[in-house]
Design a protein that fits this description.
homotetramer, 68% helix, DNA-binding
Chain lengths: 227, 227, 227, 227
DNA sequence: AATGAATGAGCGTTCATTCAT
DNA sequence: GATGAATGAACGCTCATTCAT
């Protein structure tokens, strides 16, 4: 299952019968490849155009600027990721099940899509604008989704209550990102991401579980949580 | 305690009352500020020069290129961080103690140095060169240090043995990085990093602990929680 | 007859009434003018662009660098000169006729093209690269052509055999170059080049002629020079 | 016999007893070396300073600018050359003798001084300023000296009168220059310059000689001569 | 006089973007 | 819509020159 499959949202431009793949998607796919190999700033619009098999100017018929190309890339991919996560989130009764599924889903999506992993983990941070403006929208949404899963499980007494859901959301995001980053940049060890996801989930879930048998402890600490 | 304190390497000194520090360090400090505000690519060498109070050309007496300026920044700061981490690592007998200290040390260092945090977490990924070449040296060193702490504790029976130390190292790095990133970009909530560090350590250490029959250990750690 | 006439190589054409010639040629012509007035190093790419009526960047669509612009100038012009010289060389039965025609042709070509003369004589020597690398190709070709004319005439018993054809080729090149140089830099005396060419040919051909009937003179001076 | 030997003219700065070679000369010598290897524009003042064993700034105590360094180089060397030529000129009764000696002297001086030859033949043309302003002084002086030798011999009936002394002076200069150029850039064949000088003199003197007894040939060409 | 660190004007080149076809 | 030649603003870097020591 790949995040870049299909077309989830937006502009149904040129849905002419005679033209199968639309240009917009071809350009985005080319951009993923080029951004992944060279990074956002070192990537040339001309090269993306070439990789997409279109003329330089054509890109500007679909995207306002090179910056917007990157932004759209995230929008498209992350909106789809958020949807998947939300869908998944609904399928599991326990917080542990939800969190494990979400962790495994995210790394699973990247398995087989190194380029996209690299773009998301590396290029997300390349444009200050991107990070500070766009990120404020979708990234916050993402973090809130993760935090809500933790918070729900805390309220249900399933997770320890002495940690901030938002801090945990950031830590989990970061852990996934760190694993994806080193994976994207390093050796392509097959199945590596799945195993890593599983281990990460094991540790996090165990670490987050409300204390054991008597359970008194977590409750004792809970009141002071704030962040 | 700041990572940017002290002087690492050569060049003449002046130390007139009105002008603190030597040129190289002044330039590095200016670069941190500018890179943090604008990102590496959007930062102009001229602006860094101006911020450092030197002429444009002066920068090139100390650094071969704009790229090398960024690289040197990491070298200087990360080499110092590695030293601190190694020192710290030696002071604690248990793996749990070590790991907690390392986590708290890293986030503690950034407290009060938002700019540096932003440069490290955001700009580290801006230059393909930086990430793929330089990173292969120091970053690997860093990851190996973290992994060895985990591995040692596993061998001692203190940590669960069913997770890869290297995966954990990456996850821990990522978690710290994610927390630092959101902190650097978001609200400056005082003490936030310390609390986050403590909570992250709580969860990770509990999650990593070799599952004890009675679960007594968790209780032993609890008192240090503050956030 | 001008060396800069005609079109040597590719690129689309336009030929609207108001805009004469294609960009590449317009740029070359502008470069000749600017290089002649200021010399290669003191010439600014921006000025050439302005003189050619194109944007700065346009120059780089046709030439890889400022250096290559100069190189291409020589290639274009000298290749054409070589062709003319070879054509001319074929039309005359005697060595004297050939040499005279070649001398007069070369200086004749420059008549009316002071700029080009100046570029060739002055700027040829400005770029070490140009002189040492490019020159090794075309310039050697040129010298060999001249030397072969001398050598042929020597073999035919027409020219004295006690001088090296290669030394003569260099001397003739130099003499033409010296005349062109002073002409390009000095007063534009109309017809001056033609007259100078004629006189130079007179002296050289007489000096090169195999010793006449009585033959005593040459032998007296030149016992057995070979070099 | 080398043109760069001794100190002929100018500024007796710092004739302190304790310091043998004076800096000015050391700088000039270093400049010759560096200019010869790299050309004027590609030569860095810092490199000349290093080659001379002085600090960058020291050069500006002796020369107003990099340009003036080149100019001074020519002044020093060419003034000396002019003196030698004038001295030599006085020693020979016949025009042929004078001219031959001057030709051989000039190329002889360069034998063993490739660097200087390259500087004079190549670098003379690098600075428009140099060529157009300085050249107008010394170079004209040089050409007039050569022309006067020819003119004198013409008046004496020794040289043919149907050629312009000034054209001949330029041609001779050029021929010498062309030979020196190719020699400086090409193979260092020992003795090559001497042999070339001798052959060039043979051809030129024969070519310039007043028509011999029968004289028919020269007369046939004479009509077209004017300058 | 001598030094060499510092200066900063200046330029070649790039590349996102435009627009005539 | 599609093209790609043309544009020109923008910037990293160099290096001749200065000047405090």
């Amino acid at each position: 299952m790949a995040v870049s499959e299909g077309r989830a949202s937006g502009r149904p431009r040129d849905e002419r019968a005679s033209r199968g793949g639309d240009k917009r998607e071809r350009i985005l796919r080319a951009a993923v490849k080029v951004f992944a190999r060279k990074g956002f700033y070192a990537s040339r619009v001309a090269e993306i155009a070439k990789a997409a098999g279109v003329a330089d100017g054509t890109i500007y018929l679909y995207f306002k600027s090179k910056d917007e190309l990157l932004t759209s890339l995230f929008e498209d991919r992350i909106v789809r990721l958020l949807q998947l996560l939300r869908d998944e989130s609904g399928k599991h009764p326990s917080g542990a099940g939800r969190l494990r599924q979400m962790i495994e889903l995210q790394l699973g999506l990247l398995e087989g899509e190194r380029d996209l992993a690299e773009v998301i983990t590396v290029n997300l941070r390349q444009s200050s604008k991107l990070l500070k403006q766009f990120a404020t929208r979708r990234f916050t949404e993402y973090l809130e989704l993760m935090a809500s899963v933790v918070a729900d499980a805390q309220r249900a007494g399933e997770f320890r209550a002495d940690v901030s859901p938002r801090v945990m959301a950031r830590a989990i995001f970061g852990a996934l990102d760190g694993i994806a980053l080193t994976w994207a940049l390093g050796n392509p060890e097959p199945g590596g991401l799945k195993r890593a996801a599983s281990q990460l989930a094991d540790v996090l879930l165990h670490g987050l579980s409300a204390s054991l048998p008597s359970g008194a402890e977590a409750g004792a600490r809970a009141p002071s949580v704030s962040g």
